[in-house]
Amino acid sequence: MVSSATPATVRVAFDSTAGRDVLEAARRAAAASDAPVDVRPVGSPGTVHLPLLAATRDGRTALRRSVDPNATAAFVSVLGDGEFPPDGTETTVEHEDDPADFPVGTGPLAAGVRRTLRGAGWADPTAVDVPAVDGDAALDRLSSLGLRGRGWGDARRDEPVVEGWRTARDADGDAVVVVNALDADPKADGDRLLVGSLAGRVLAGAALAARAVGADAVVVALPEEAPVSADRVRGAGDALADAGGPTVSIAVADATYMTGEPTALLESLEGTDRVEARRRPPGPEAWGLFERPTLVHTPRTLAAVERAVRSPEDADLDADAADPGTRLVTVVGPDRRTVELPTDASLSRALSADEPTAFACVGGQFGGLTRELDTPVSSPALRGSGLGTNGSIEAFDDGPGGSCPVVVAGRRTRVARAENCGRCVPCRTGSVRAHELLREVYGGSFDATRLRELARTMANTSLCGFGRDAARPLATALGEFETDLRAHADGRCPAGVCDL
Ligand code: SF4
User: Fold this and answer.
1) Nearest CA to ligand 1 atom 6
2) What is the 496 CA–ligand 1 centroid distance (Å)?
3) 74: DSSP letter
4) CA angle, corner 346, sides to 341 and 352, nearest 5?
5) Atom 8 in ligand 1: which residue has the minimum CA distance?
6) Which residues line ligand 1 (CB under 6 A)?
7) To test ligand 1's pocket by mutation, which of 420, 429, 468 has the most ligand atoms within 8 angstroms of CB?
8) What Cα–Cα distance (Å) separates residue 224 from each residue in 94, 253, 255, 256, 446?
9) Where are the transmembrane segments (predicted)?
10) CA 174/CA 458 separation, integer angstroms
């Protein structure tokens, strides 16, 4: 530890109310210190190990994760005494003076790139700077690029966003932009991360969408248990309004997987007692919130929109790419984190060398099961491999303490059975029957033909994306793990996990 008279900056990264106590402890300790310590609240850089302290002085940043107020007060007091790195530092990263982004060093957050995530965990989450282009220019740019929507909950998921924008622009009525920040998939954190860490950038993307369709209102749908994100959206919304942008309001909705479906979200926002997906056509761009033309986009899509308009020179924003830009991928596990990969990078790039490799579920709650992690993270590549596109990898080991693909497929089919809205038969009845047939495998009965037909019917005839996606864990288990299913029916678990 060395002493320095250089002022220090402490960033307190948090996304929950417990983090506010840590921030206050840091501020009190800084106020009581002899040397100046600048305390700044920020969002997460991508990790869930919050609150996180990042103390910066003389081109170095000392990091400490999962702190409480007492540890924070001690950490900041030592800094105030001019010493660096403070006691309790877990990692110290050297970097240029005054970097624009969180110094990820060589840790797990260093996987991939930080373009959409640039500034997460480092910059003021409420700062807003909308690119100075008019709506037609923004629409033309996205049209020539072919930017696709991102994530469960986006009305243009995996499709070019501008098709919906043109429909909304040409439809009768006052258009509105809905930001679907419900965080509805428990396996993917990309939207929560962007709203909590870069709310201003998400709203800048929403403002560009509003310009393109002539909307003067943006509604941000948030779960009730996200008060810190709500504060940051409010702060960014006020800054946007001061700059002449659209009015931003927050609407609290139930954050279930079902209400994440774009039209079910609109039903929820309208106060409907029984939330169901709507029949289409017309889609929400023509007939949306209270019958208004409505764009429904996730924070992931809107942040990608903002970057595509602001930085057209970025190499990954290539109109010839099948899926221009980058994708956020949450690695689900003990060191849960969200990283950003170019769309031509393989899934395996998100993982550390010490993570499980037996098999993985890729693409969220209703992702696909696979042993193959060389697939690129672009939407066409993932879909072509039968995997999901909702930005997550949950990797498993087999053996004691690990998991078994039959168990994973069964659990996710059970979620489909429990949480579907019940509006259409293929999903409502299909998910019940699929779950029952998977349970019967443990009793010695495995009817592969019937299970395949069920998965195919759900995927092809369900009314909304819930049912189409819900078939995926089953379909991919039948595709790549049929021998495991047969072995279970014969009373044997090849992974050594199930008690048969
Ligand atoms: S697919 Fe499932 S969630 Fe969607 S409308 Fe049908 S029953 Fe409801």
Assistant:
1) 424
2) 35
3) H
4) 80
5) 421
6) 276-277, 420-424, 427-428, 462-464, 466-467
7) 420
8) 39, 7, 8, 11, 43
9) none
10) 36
Query: Which value, to the nearest 10 degrees, does the dihedral of the CA atoms of residues 270, 272, 276, 277 take?
Result: -20
Q: What is the pLDDT of residue 82?
A: 84
Q: Is residue 257 within 8 Å of residue 420, measured between CB atoms?
A: no
Residues 302 and 230 placed together within one structural domain of the fold: yes
Residues 306 and 226 reside in one and the same domain? yes
Judge if 78 and 156 occupy the same domain: no
Q: Judging by beta carbons within 10 Å of its beta carbon (0-12, 13-18, 19+), is residue 261 exposed, middle or buried?
A: buried
d(CA 112, CA 101): 14
Q: What is the pLDDT of residue 427?
A: 98
Cα separation, 173 vs 280, in Å, equals 19
The whole-number pLDDT of residue 45 equals 98
The token duo for 343 is 């769309």
For tokens 């169901």, what's the residue? Answer: 276
Q: What is the pLDDT of residue 34?
A: 85
Question: How are beta strands 91-94 and 83-84 bridged, if at all?
Answer: unpaired
Check which CATH number belongs to the domain holding 77 and give it: 3.40.30
Sign of the dihedral defined by the CA atoms of residues 372, 377, 378, 382, in that order: positive
- Give yes or no for a contact between 126 and 40, defined as CB atoms under 8 angstroms apart: no
Of the candidates 485, 413, 392, 473, which has an alpha carbon nearest to the alpha carbon of residue 442?
Answer: 485
What pLDDT shows up at residue 376?
97
Same domain flag for 76 and 140:
no
Q: Helix, strand, or coil here: 331?
A: strand
What's the N-to-C CA distance of the chain in angstroms?
56
For residues 61 and 145, membership in a common domain is answered with: no
Exposure of 475 by Cβ count < 10 A (0-12 exposed, 13-18 middle, 19+ buried)? buried
Single out the residue of 354, 349, 353, 455 nearest to residue 393, CA to CA.
Answer: 349
Residue 336, phi-psi category: left (phi > 0), alpha (psi -120 to 50), beta (remainder) = beta
CA 202, CA 184: separation in Å to the nearest integer?
17
In 83-186, the DSSP E strands lie at 83-84, 91-94, 176-180
Q: Tell me how many degrees the CA angle 220-225-229 measures, rounded to the nearest 5.
A: 50
Three-class SS state of 206: helix
C-alpha 254/C-alpha 247 separation (Å) is 23
105 and 167, same domain (yes or no): no
Amino acid at 100: A
DSSP H or E run through 327: strand 326-332
Query: Last residue of a domain, which of 310, 325, 343?
Result: 310
393: enclosing H helix or E strand:
strand 392-396
pLDDT < 50 positions in the chain: none
Q: Would you state the pLDDT for residue 52? A: 98
Q: Are 166 and 286 members of one domain?
A: yes
Q: How far is the CA of 154 from the centre of ligand 1 (A)?
A: 16
Residue 53 lies inside a defined structural domain of this protein: yes
pLDDT for residue 5: 61
For residue 349, what is the DSSP state? G
Tokens representing residue 185 in the block? 């998939």
